[in-house]
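Write out the 3D structure for:
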Amino acid sequence: MGAQWSPPRPGYRPDASLPLPPGAPVPPLPMARRKGRALLLVGAGTCLVIAVALASVAAVQFSASRNPSSVAKRYFAAVASGDAAAALAFASAPPTADTGPFLTAAVLAQQRKVAPISGISVSDTVISGSSATVSVHYTLTFTDGPKSRTDRVQLVKRGSSWRLDRVGGVVSLGASAAGSDRLTFVGRPIPPVPVQLFPGAVPVATDSPSVLVSGDPAVSLGTTTSVIALRPTLSDAARQLASDGVETALRKCLAVTSTDPLCPMIEGGRPVPGSLHGTLTKKIAASDPTVTLASAGKGIIAINVEASVKASWKVWDFNNQQVARSESTTVTIVATSSVDSPQTVEWVPAHG
């Protein structure tokens, strides 16, 4: 008889190194292990697909970020945000201290204060070899409303990158109109020579809230020097104050108690100074007054108006006797005030 089977003694371990008999079946892998290996393979494949897709997107974005239209848009975005250093980094050749003393963050801040840039878009990109032209559209928001602008940006290729041929426009500022002495350029007198600025509003201001710069002057990246004539003008508020000041002063002159010889007089004949009395039949503001900055400068406001009055006055006759007159007529008003106090007027003789 064969040996009787008995249970293994405690601590017994079969020898794993013993080979299986020939033809012995291979035990199957546990189900959990097979599923885990399949999931790893699927996950690896998915990661590979995602990596390839991300690499493709990154390559497209990198290429797009370096094309002319993208470079032009990023340059204007830097200007719009006030980042002068980033804007200058797009230049094919950096401006020198002589050619670009006003291409600074401080001057750009003044430009943005006058009119910030918004709504930047690009179109009409034309590439010819190592040169390109891009149309950039944007909005400048001045105090009197938004103004749409279109700039033609010239670019050149340097290696694999596109750069702007110029990052500033050159303007020559002329200031010869009445009131030009009230204008300042970034806090300084108007420069007598052309200057280079970032695109946007020309940083011109005035030394009085009563004076504005008409026309909303702006600079672009043109290839030639732009000549801009600066024209100061009175604000609507200052005009209204001056008109109201004339009306107040004239009513005092028309009062029966007034004997001021400097008050306006009826033209014609020989009127007796200080004898004009009566009432206004139309408000000064409704009589189309001319209220402008005086050509003499120094902040003087010139006021001219034909005032409608129902008046009585006296004239000297040929015998040097005072003769009374009375009728509805007009009085020629010539007066001055100042940008510091538009409502305070002084009478000027009509032919003085």
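The chain has five helices and 18 strands.
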